[in-house]
Amino acid sequence: MSHFLDVQELAVRYGSVNALRGVSFHVDQGEIVTLIGSNGAGKTSSLMAISNLIQGTRTGTVTFEGEDITHLSPSKIVKRGISHVPEGRHIFPKLTVEENLIMGTFGAKKYDKSGTAKLLEEIYDMFPRLRERRSQLGGTLSGGEQQMLAIGRGLMFSPKVLMLDEPSLGLAPLVVKEIFELILDIRDRGTTVLLIEQNAGLALQIADRGYVLENGNITLTDTGENLLHNDQVIKAYLGI
Questions:
Q1: What percent of the chain has pLDDT over 70?
Q2: Using the 8-state DSSP alphabet, how is residue 203 labeled?
Q3: What is the pLDDT of residue 99?
Q4: How far apart are CA 40 and CA 18, in angstroms?
């Protein structure tokens, strides 16, 4: 069976450290799929490898819409339709909110001024707070607003798959709830989501399927609901 995004036998090594040890997972169109695990399990390396941003050694294959994209440059992977919102937001603090969003179209020749304006309106409809702060410098936003800006910028390329790395990191519980509601809205609007998240409980509540990563290996996979009630997951990741 051909999957929308298919990762096979992915291994990543940084010097003598094996971050991933031949993991395989897939994401089908219209899904939210989550990778959960503790720090150092290989979650971020998985996304970095898909985007071909790995600084170490990488083996395995990544296929998207039936095409092998393993060795494409990061910019070409974005143009194929995979957008990566990294951990830590990495917005441009001295640019306005609107300028940050426009940077999300960088390299996309298909967007003229009218096309960019239409995209901005779509993002502002999804993130009303960004509309309110469109002329404000990115560095003056709250943590939650910066996360919304980072996600909004990732959506400016109209991606088919949005990869999110720890979107709840450092945010207050009420803001985290809002971010996860936005992730569901993004999926409902037609964008497939691959989510990396340490807050396993929240991630599994919204995920169609999940994979558990431990020491660079996938040890469990199931529906989000089943993993949420799995005794092993409960003891290791849900703090119950």
A1: 96
A2: H
A3: 96
A4: 10
| Cβ-contact 163, 194 below 8 angstroms | yes
Tell me the DSSP string of 24-86.
Answer: EEEE-TT-EEEEE--TTSSHHHHHHHHTT--SSEEEEEEEETTEE-TTS-HHHHHHHTEEEE-
Structure tokens at 137: 């410098």
For residues 184-195, b (16+ Cβ closer than 10 Å) or e, as one string? eebbeeebbbbb
CB 172 within 8 A of CB 54: no
Phi first, then psi, for residue 88 (nearest 5°) are 95, 0
Encoded tokens for 29: 């169109």
Separation CA 50–CA 107 (nearest Å): 19
Task: Give the model confidence (pLDDT) of 131-145 as tens digits.
Answer: 999 999 999 999 999
77: tokens are 């992977």
Residue type (1 letter), 153? R
In single-letter form, the type of residue at position 72 comes to L
Give dist(CA 215, CA 26) in Å, integer.
19
**Six-digit token string for 111:** 């967007």
Q: Phi then psi for 72, rounded to 5 degrees?
A: -70, 155
